Amino acid sequence: MKEIIIDTLIDSIKLIPFLFLAFFIIELIEHKFNKKAKKIIAKSGNYGPLIGSALGLFPQCGFSVMATNLYTTRIITFGTLIAIYLSTSDEMLPIMLSKNTDLSIILQLLSIKFIVGVLSGILIDFIIRKKIKKVKLNYHICDDENCHCEEGIFLSSLKHTFNTILFIIIATFILNTTIHYFGEENIETLFLKNNIFAPFLSSLLGLIPNCAASVIITELYLNNAISLGTAIAGLLTGSGLAILVLFKTNKNLKENFIILLTIYGIGALIGTFIEIYQIYF
Predict the structure, then answer these.
(1) Cα atoms found within 13 Å of the Cα of residue 188, Cβ hemisphere only
(2) How far is CA 88 from CA 26, 53, 63, 161, 257, in A?
(3) Nearest to 234 by CA among 270, 262, 276, 206
(4) Predicted structure pTM score
(5) DSSP per residue over 127-185, as a string?
(6) Could you give the CA distance from residue 43 to residue 49 in angstroms, rounded to a whole number?
(7) How far apart (Å, rounded) are the C-alpha atoms in residues 265 and 166?
(8) CA separation (Å) from 250 to 79, 122, 151, 199?
(9) What letters, b where the CB count within 10 A reaches 16 and e where it falls short, cover 161-194?
(10) Could you give the CA distance from residue 177 to residue 187 in angstroms, rounded to a whole number?
(11) How far is residue 266's CA from residue 261's CA, in Å, rounded to a whole number?
(12) pLDDT (tens digit, 0 to 9) for every residue of the chain, 281 residues total?
């Protein structure tokens, strides 16, 4: 056990400078681009799902939360909201960048999320095609959701790094312990690797309104404990704090559950499709 703890800490601590650098760059861009992004998505109109999916790929602290606020006030469409939720990468990208993951793998994951987000959003808006009266809502993302954006780039980056590295240590420790005592074959069985039902579990995990979900799924995928289809299923449904904010700000509970089931269903189905393709083709 002592060796497992030491190995876990060493592997995790080595990531801190790279993780901080990734978050610092992200925060820098976010502070410069956040207001512009809000205006762009608010004025996107019929191109909402396309623009929303593109902006959602970049792991901004409050973008999916901001999109939730824009939907609650009916500035963006249902389809645009779903597109943003599906494309949001949360902590996936910083972790992969800090671990020097092959660029082709990163682009593959981001491309799938972008395409699924765009097509789902366009299809949903086409099916619904109804206007909803705008409502007024006084809601401040940074103040209410503790994104720490107001505290400055450096301090915000430190907090993001600390929170993420904490989840990485926990996930890595669990993974290393399981591998040590049960073996790689058993851990693959535990996470249903190469099983068509695995995406349904991963998609459910992704719905946890916390960065822990994307951290765990990304770590499992990079450690080859889950397959691409299973990882995609969870990463599609992982939108950070957005779901939590949705239930907090949108009083229509029926609509909230429809949104929840929509992203869960899309994530699970896309993940299952990829899983079947990998297994049988």
Answers:
(1) 9
(2) 14, 8, 8, 18, 19
(3) 206
(4) 0.78
(5) HH------------HHHHHT--GGG-HHHHHHHHHHHHHHHHHHHHHHHHHHHHHH-HH
(6) 12
(7) 30
(8) 16, 22, 27, 28
(9) bebbbebbbbbbbebbebbeeeeeeebbeebbbe
(10) 10
(11) 8
(12) 777 787 778 777 877 887 787 677 666 766 666 666 667 777 777 888 999 898 888 765 567 877 888 888 888 899 999 999 999 877 788 888 888 899 999 999 999 999 999 999 999 999 987 554 444 444 444 444 444 555 577 887 788 778 778 877 887 787 778 767 766 666 667 667 778 889 999 999 888 877 777 888 898 898 888 899 999 999 999 887 788 888 888 888 999 999 999 999 999 999 999 999 887 66
CA–CA separation, 41 vs 94, rounded Å? 23
Rounded Cα distance, 12 and 17, in Å:
10
Q: Report d(CA 160, CA 255) in Å as an integer.
A: 31
User: Contact 150/143 with Cβ under 8 angstroms?
Assistant: yes
The residue count of the chain comes to 281
* Distances, alpha carbon 223 to alpha carbons 34, 99, 220, in Å: 33, 11, 5
State the Cα–Cα distance between residues 59 and 5, nearest whole angstrom: 30
Q: What is the DSSP string of 190-220?
A: HTTTT-TTHHHHHHHHHTSSSHHHHHHHHHH
In the DSSP assignment, the letter for residue 226 is S
